[in-house]
Amino acid sequence: MRGGGQSGSFSSSTRSGSKNSPKCIRAVNSQLYKKEMSDQGMTWLLLLYTPMLKGTQNYESIIEEVANSLKGALKVGSIDCETKLSFCKDLGVYPCRAPKVLFIHTEQMTVVPW
Fold first, then answer.
1. How confident is the model at residue 79 (pLDDT cuts 50, 70, 90)?
2. Rounded CA gap, 63 and 102, in Å?
C-alpha cells in the first residue's frame, strides 16, 4: 500500500465543529482530495454531511469502526457540505435528508446506499 510511514495511515486531526468526532476521521478539502485521492489513488471512505443533519454521529461511529477493523487498508474522512458547498457540488453529491457516504478507489467514486 502506498502512503507515509504512519501507523494505520490515519490522521489524528478531527473535523471542526464536532466535539465528539472520532479521531481517525480527517477533515477533507479539495486540495487533500486532489493530492491523496486523484493524484495518488488512495482508497477513501468519505462522510458528507451538514451540521443540521440528524444521525451524523451514528455514521461517524460506523465509519470509525470500519476504519479500525481494516487497520489502514483505507483512509476515512469527512466533508462539511455547509462550509465546503462548492466542493460537494464539484463531487456531484450533496446530503439532503441524511449524511452520504462515498467510497473512492482509484478515481472511481461510489455513493454507498444506507
1. very high
2. 11
Does 14 fall in a domain? yes
Would you tell me how many other CB atoms lie within 10 Å of the CB of residue 11?
16
Determine the pLDDT at residue 106.
67
- Total structural domains in the chain? 1
| DSSP assignment letter at 9 | G
Is the Cβ–Cβ distance between 101 and 63 less than 8 Å?
yes
Cβ contact 52:60 at 8 Å: no
Among 3, 41, 69, which Cα is nearest to 11's?
A: 3
Q: Please, which pLDDT band fits residue 48 given cuts at 50, 70 and 90?
A: very high
Rounded distance between C-alpha atoms, residue 38 and residue 52, angstroms? 29
Range(s) of the domain holding residue 61: 7-112
Using alpha carbons, select from 48, 100, 106, 49 the residue that is nearest to residue 74: 106
- This prediction has a pTM of 0.71
